[in-house]
Amino acid sequence: MSLRPRSGEQVPSLTAQVARASNPGGTTAIWVRDRLDGLWCDEDFADWYPRDGRPGLSPAQLATVCVLQFLLGLSDRQAAGAVRCRIDFKYAMAMELDDPGFHHSVLVDFRDRLAEGDRADRLLDLALARLKEAGLVRERTIQRTDSTRVLAAVRDLTRLELITEAVRAGLEEVAGTSPHLLDELVDEDWGRRCGRPVRLGKNPTRPKTRILATGNDAVRLLEHLHRHGVDRVFGPRIQALRQIMVQNYHRDAAGHLRWRTAEKEGGPGLPPSSRAVVSPYDTSARYARHGHIISWKGFAAHLTETCASDGPNVITDVATTAATTHDSQVLPGIHTRLARRGPLPAEHLVDAGYISLPHLEQATREHQVTVSGPLRSNPTRQHRRNEGFARDDFHIDYDHQQVTCPQG
Predict the structure, then answer these.
(1) CB–CB of 245/170 below 8 Å?
(2) Does some domain include residue 142?
(3) Of 246, 248, 334, 400, which sits with the fewest C-beta atoms within 10 Å of its C-beta?
């Protein structure tokens, strides 16, 4: 599929006439077209497509559909249906009224292209530049940042289910690429244990027996592949199985396979959440817990937007991190990207998780940005029980470098 730029096309006269008559007050889609004349043009996507091949759909139009899809909360089918049936969508994309649009699966293919490399960031840069030209984004105003959870597209597995599913995923990968390597290994018992996605629950029967049996299956598979596939580079599922095995099993002094337990239980210890793999299908997802209520497996998204009282709220930065990354570690990167794009705020509003004294000083010194937000509360047991002394109870004489205890 190749790109045939169609930038500069005007809205067909009949489409414009019907859209104005049926929506005299305008809609979001009409506003995007009128105020911005489209956020992107086809030439912005030139390096996404090869030079030869049959002409593809306009990527600028598809990008606009994705924006409207998000604004209106539409599924892919609904978005494709809106392009086919809604007059304001046809107006926004300069389409004839009888244009049948496209199949909804085209949006999936477009997002796959968008996810490659830094393409999404580049499109955001272009959109912000054009929003700035339209007067919708200004420098040195007020912006705010907050984070939200991003759930990985994986099942919530126990450790035993994780090992079993990792073995099954590894077998399926090898069966698809080099099935002859499994001829001497897989038998009927393996088919019963690994033939379908595992669902054991939190209290499976004979857990110790299952743990050792599954671990031995994994060891047999990895050793078999090592012996018979020396000249082959195995895929991500086998690599994930190796990593999961190291994180959940160990060898005792006699060389026997043992289940890893926490150090406080007398075991060799488990990997921290920042390193522990939670699914063989997405080894970058991590388990995170906030307080005693919120926990998830996946990632964290940090969204920054303008929040001036005299203008619309516009997202100026999106940062996706591991779920275990602390909010305060994200702030310097946000300011660096905003400085590159142009719309640095004068005041940056954040919650307590982003506040740290070194980063507050860095933001003021390097970017002249005032970071405002509540300080983190004291998490110690003494503070919760209202026992002992807090920092504010001490008298500090900075001139004489003396600290006086509350009790004298």
Answers:
(1) no
(2) no
(3) 400
Domain that holds residue 54: 13-136
Percent of the chain with pLDDT over 90: 53
In degrees, rounded to 5, the angle at the alpha carbon of residue 113 between the alpha carbons of residues 50 and 240 is: 120
Confidence of residue 90 (pLDDT cuts 50, 70, 90): very high
Whether residue 400 lies inside any domain: the answer is no
Closest C-alpha to 167, from 221, 243, 115, 117: 221
E strand or H helix at 405: none
Helices (H), 249-356: 331-341
- Asked if pLDDT for residue 2 goes beyond 60, the answer is no
Between these two residues, 265 and 99, which has the higher pLDDT value? 99
3-state secondary structure 29-81: HHHHHHHHCCCCCHHHHHHHCCCCCCECCCHHHHHHHHHHHHHHCCCHHHHHH
**How far apart, in whole angstroms, are the C-alpha atoms of residue 86 and residue 97?**
9
Tens digit of each residue's pLDDT (9 = 90 or more) over 269-283: 899 999 999 999 999
Q: Based on the domain organization, do 126 and 30 belong to the same domain?
A: yes
Q: Which of 76, 156, 142 is nearest to 112 (CA)?
A: 76
